[in-house]
Amino acid sequence: MSNPYGEIFRAPGAKGFSAAGFFARLPIAMAPIGIVAMLSQTHGEYWLAGAVSATFALTNALVAPQISRLVDRVGQTAVVVPTTIISVLAFLVLILAANRDWPAWTLFASAFLAAAMPSIPALVRARWTEIFRNRPELNTAFAFESSADELVYIAGASLSVGLAVALFPEAGMLISTIFLALGTAAFILQRSTEPKVRPLEAGVSRASAIRQRPVQIITLALIFVGSIFATAEVSAVAITKELGQPQAASLVIGVYAVGSFLVGLALGALNPTMPLHRQLLIAVSVIAITSVPLLLADTVPLLALAVFVSGIAISPTFITAFGLIERRVPESMLTEGVTWVMTGIGIGMALGAFVSGWVVDNFGAQNGFWVSVAAGTATVATIAMGQRSLAGHKGASVAGSIPQPPSSGTSADLRRVGTNRRTAGSSVGPSPREEKPMARGSLIAVSGLFAGLAAVAALTVSAERRNESPWRPINATSHWIHGRRAGSQSRLDLAHTGTGFVTHMLASLWWALPFSAMVGRSARPSPQRVIAAAFGTTVLAALVDYGLVPKRLTPGWELALPKSDLAAAYMAMGIGLALGASLHGAAAARGQEHPPV
Question: How many other C-beta atoms can be found within 10 angstroms of the C-beta atom of residue 205?
């Protein structure tokens, strides 16, 4: 019996781009923890290290799908080369800033620019798809890549921290940057396997891949799966510490990853013929069922066994999820679709770490696994309700796409419908009336996120300038629960900092609602309109926060900072709203520059 993995690597160029892609993707795991290891040693402040790392991670989660969308339109080389150069230079500036003790803003600015790093796993999977499109070997290739991702997460973080501790603080980040530069260069130089730029299919909208129903379903499901992954790590550390064996945490976490890695390789070798949407439902059901025994593990051996069992379906879930993306997303959107799924995993890991940490702090180490149980149940519900969409044909459900003719129509019918749709109303191009409105939901999400983070940055800088703890203004926002004493809390903790941050970000999203209404529905709002809307929303927010609502429901910043600094926070909020809307509008405009042909 032939080795299925040997078969896929017989394809010309497969060994080369896969090996280069493995090294190029190591920074995905090395950079976030490497930033923390570097700055915690050079600056001695974990809050700063965590904030800079979060800036990189969150910005990359937002930017990576847009980079991949551009890759689908103009090709890998044209996009990956400049974005990688920006990312590598920014990482080098970050390393230099840490070594030379430059001002804190240089750390945040360089981390922000370093987030231009492209999604290498998505680029690698796009090349495998180009080679094995509509062939069973593609499932084996995706299985190999999912296992490679597991190795990256196992080895990358440990390597980054180990280098920083054993050699010098910047060592982990320096090696990570070298991997990014050399690995990506080796990957891009292999032009023979680079996917062709595929024209947009007839009847498919130019909108983002996230508007594809299968992408929405799978991304949401993998947010929950990512939270399960993070919960296992947080809870394992907490339980082993409670049992008096903290050194066993690394063993338990390693067993979790190894179980997933081995089953993923086995699944790729077996290559089952069952429809992928059913395989995915079975895989997530196994995840949900095997999360229950974690609640009963009260010794390290039992915990290791339960964690091993609970991890066996993680890799199969990723393999079938990426396989479904390849089959259900139009070829012209493949790289972006894969990147959105990767982003969902990252978001889930961040949320899972936060929520499970809060549960552990407030309800005990053993109860952290209830987050896994809840997330597993939510994953099954999401995939089960999405079975019809996941079983459909490629490009079947695109929000805002042109309605498709009945499946019994001929290919000539399909071409005629597409032609009629394109030429209706004008023979020279889309009329102004055909311009698609700005997506209100995504505008609210993007502008609210930027506004919230900008205000946090302003509050942090104000507190540091006054020699106060940077956590005080965020902690103060939790005063609606903890009372006025929240404003005097200077330490980072989930009860105050976590509650305050979540409250603040929800409030920012709330104020993005009137802002989006002021901006209007145009896909290309004028800069004057955006600035006026941001100014009006900021003034409205300040008047409501400190003129209308009860004192218990104010942002609470006045408990930690003088009023002059509050004005700076609101100004930053306005800048964040305007910046978010501008970026969102630019992305929407790019989606309409080239109508379907």
Answer: 21
Tokens at 251, concatenated: 């063993």
Residue 202, φ and ψ in degrees, nearest 5: -60, 135
292 and 356 share one domain? yes
Return d(Cα 76, Cα 147) in angstroms, integer: 23
pLDDT in tens, 32-79: 777 877 887 787 766 677 678 777 877 887 788 888 888 888 888 888
Assigned token pair, 83: 């974005």
Residues 6+ apart with CB under 8 A from 78: none
The mean pLDDT value of the chain amounts to 76
Q: Comparing C-alpha atoms, which of 369, 390, 218, 392 is closest to residue 295?
A: 369
Q: What is the pLDDT of residues 228-264, one digit of tens each?
A: 877 777 777 778 878 887 767 667 766 776 777 777 6
Per residue in 142-197, pLDDT tens? Answer: 777 777 777 777 667 667 767 777 788 888 889 989 999 998 899 888 888 888 87
3-state secondary structure of 490: coil
Instruction: State the Cα–Cα distance between residues 541 and 567, nearest whole angstrom.
Output: 11
Tokens 């976030």 identify what position?
32
User: pTM of the entire structure?
Assistant: 0.56
* Domain of residue 57, residue span: 11-196
DSSP secondary structure of 150-191? HHHHHHHHHHHHHHHHHT-TTHHHHHHHHHHHHHHHHHHT-G
Question: Using CA atoms, how far apart are residues 272 and 192, in angstroms rounded to an integer?
Answer: 30
Spatial separation of the C-alpha atoms in residues 325 and 361, rounded to whole Å: 38
State which of 170, 196, 222 marks the end of a domain.
196
Question: Do 116 and 231 reside in the same domain of the chain?
Answer: no
What is the rounded distance in angstroms from the CA atom of residue 468 to the CA atom of residue 370?
Answer: 37
Residues 235 and 283 reside in one and the same domain? yes
Q: Of 26, 57, 44, which Cα lies nearest the Cα of 120?
A: 26
pLDDT at position 96 is: 92
Q: How far apart are the first and last CA of the chain?
A: 47
Q: What is the CA radius of gyration of the chain?
A: 24
